[in-house]
Amino acid sequence: MTDKFPSVLISPASMAKVDRDAALSGLDSYGLMRRAGFAVAAAALRHYPEAVRFVVLCGPGNNGGDGFVAAAALREAGGNVRVFSLGDPGQLRGDAAKAFADFDGAVEPLEAYRQEQGDLVIDALFGAGLSRDLPPSVTDIIDRLAEVDVPVLAVDLPSGLDGATGKPRPKAFQAQHTVTFVARKPGHVLLPGRGLCGEVEVFDIGIPRRIVERHAGIVGINDLAHWAAMLPRLSDASHKFTRGHLTVFSGKASATGAARLSGLAGLKAGAGLVTLASPGSAVLVNVSQTTAIMIRTVDDIDSLQDYLTDKRMGAFVLGPGFGIGEKARAFALALAERRLVLDADGISSFKEAPESLFDAFASGETRLVLTPHEGEFARLFPDLAGDDSLGKVEKARAAATRAHAVLVYKGADTVIAAPDGRALVNANAPPWLATAGSGDVLAGIIGGLLAQGTAAFEAAAAGVWLHAKAATRLGPGLTAEDLASAVQPFQAETDC
């Protein structure tokens, strides 16, 4: 197994273009299919040496062709192989027809399959290009396998899973392992697809890098390759004033903790200075709970405007524990010329008039980072949230373009999207990161990177990755306080 493109996500439509150009370049397309099928057979033997019977379910297209090649290889290796076909395999075309012709064995109708103890099911029915709901003959097998302990190894993607969105159509196999080719597809990393794929292995079947990169597009997996070179680096000449000043707005006296979490995370992420802009009624609470973070009284729009006369105040976090309403809207709009992470209450405050926020940040460089969870996303973008034809990546990209902002569409499969169409899907977050206050920490990390001069998209993507890395270091049972304290700046020497 050689994953040559660990940061790449190829949509099903783009993968079809890769296959087309590979054939046009002179590569033997059937040779590529044989390599794919051999990889599936090798994975089956490696992961399931105890299998009593290799059951290969072959579909009506090239995924089925991969299955026939795998079945032939498993028979050659001495395996007990049974092949079941959806439809008449004699109607296959192209390379899939060649694979069927080269398989010297019996083929039974799909409906004839009955699971037995010791089966390994190799699902080669439909791959990433599935664009319709599964037929009842397939969903019946999915239902039956869900009730018994029979492992499934999926070819390309578990059948029924939309390769572009990660959504079942209307259901999909639950695979223990998935073998895919060239690069991952969005369905491998977006939920619920990620959970249905099990362990994903990417095999290089010999398509040249130049062809893959021609069609890879601007959607990928969030990792160092996309932003590490853009992050600030310390030098002997660095000092606190060269590392930027982050301001985090605090809420009222009874709701100050969220802002302090953000402020500490921004400081730990490398900002040289952090100030909590606090209402006067909460100053004593904040002063008693902070040391390295400074406190400044900012009660109203006039005191904020006075604070903004210092042009060194370049990055802000507004929303954690701040309260929903007119004050939040006024403060956010007053920051339209600065770099702003708008989170939580800050987002919800614009539910009735999101266009006023979008218009305020429409010109110049991208300065606004929005960090909504599912509910907050629906408040700003109700039409996108309600469009079931769109996947999470498509929703985030459309929202980023509309808002003139970087979108951090949070969840276990957080998507980071830029107004220019770039998008990354995060895949390094552990499940225990879902805890109260975790989002406040994330907002602070992104704000700390913005304060140091990192561009908005890279700051957001790096912030999401660093947030998850800190959680991984801590392990299960973490609290938001633990998480904020565990944040570390990116270190090229150890993180690459």
TrEMBL record:
Subunit structure, interactors included: Homotetramer.
Cofactor requirements of the protein: K(+); Mg(2+)
Residues at which AMP binds: 410-414, 439
Family to which the UniProt record says this protein belongs: Belongs to the NnrE/AIBP family.
Catalytically driven reaction(s): (6R)-NADPHX = (6S)-NADPHX; (6S)-NADPHX + ADP = AMP + phosphate + NADPH + H(+); (6R)-NADHX = (6S)-NADHX; (6S)-NADHX + ADP = AMP + phosphate + NADH + H(+)
EC id: 4.2.1.136, 5.1.99.6
GO molecular function: ADP-dependent NAD(P)H-hydrate dehydratase activity; ATP binding; metal ion binding; NAD(P)HX epimerase activity
A GO BP entry: nicotinamide nucleotide metabolic process
Full protein name: Bifunctional NAD(P)H-hydrate repair enzyme
Superkingdom classification of source: Bacteria
Keywords: ATP-binding, Isomerase, Lyase, Metal-binding, Multifunctional enzyme, NAD, NADP, Nucleotide-binding, Potassium
Role this protein plays: Bifunctional enzyme that catalyzes the epimerization of the S- and R-forms of NAD(P)HX and the dehydration of the S-form of NAD(P)HX at the expense of ADP, which is converted to AMP. This allows the repair of both epimers of NAD(P)HX, a damaged form of NAD(P)H that is a result of enzymatic or heat-dependent hydration. Catalyzes the dehydration of the S-form of NAD(P)HX at the expense of ADP, which is converted to AMP. Together with NAD(P)HX epimerase, which catalyzes the epimerization of the S- and R-forms, the enzyme allows the repair of both epimers of NAD(P)HX, a damaged form of NAD(P)H that is a result of enzymatic or heat-dependent hydration.
Residue span(s) of domain YjeF C-terminal: 223-494
Domain YjeF N-terminal stretches: 15-213
Note on cofactor: Binds 1 potassium ion per subunit.
Binding sites annotated in the UniProt record for (6S)-NADPHX: 62-66, 127-133, 156, 258, 321, 373, 440
Residues at which K(+) binds: 63, 123, 159
